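Human: If only I could read backbone structure tokens as easily as an amino acid sequence. Underneath my words sits a plain record pairing an amino acid chain with its backbone structure tokens. Take your time, and here it is.
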Amino acid sequence: MRFQVKLVMFDLDGTLLDTAPQIAEAANRMLVALGKPMLPQAQIATYIGEGVQNLIKRCLTGSVQVEPEADLFAQAQPLYHDFYTANATQSQPFAGVVPALQQLKKQGYRLACVTNKPEKFTLPLLQQAGLADFFEVIISGDSLPKKKPDPLPLLHICQKLGVLPAEAVLVGDSETDIQAAHAAGCFVVTVPYGYNQGREIDVATVDATVQQLTEVVNLLELPALLKQGS
């Protein structure tokens, strides 16, 4: 069974781009500057996906539940932003990303990117990776009053492009993406190679899983306009 959708939305970190190496490097440079021990990249990768503030807090405390001291957090934020600004655009697309986007675009699907990453990092990353021009809409973590897992970013994209939520699918790598898609009333497809806080995706909660993005097109029904023109 194929999904009859017009819009395909993509998460960024852990779905389109392998950003963990650069995020970990920036976070560890921040920790060293603050006189704190460095963390393994694999641990930092489990902190990705719920916005940069949560990432910084978790790196400072080594926990997803403990809050750092306010003064320490205030010192850490500009350090992380400076270090990540310096290396963010070194991140590369995962295998299959570019051909998948090319095929989806060729077949007439509307494409958007929706991420919790701040816009100051999102746009340069997508541009440097050669992906920005594939997307009609790009929504970052600070573009709207709320971010994923709230449905607002997904609903905003649907409204902007004149597509019903039931005619859209979100492709992501985390529970944050799954919750946002469910709340918005969209389909959700996940990849297994992302940063879902170190946990495996519960396949019972998603509409489909793919090993890489080139498989997404096989899940979708061709848009009616394209079929009529063929």
Remarks:
- The longest strand covers residues 110-114.
- The chain has two domains: 7-18+92-229, 20-90.
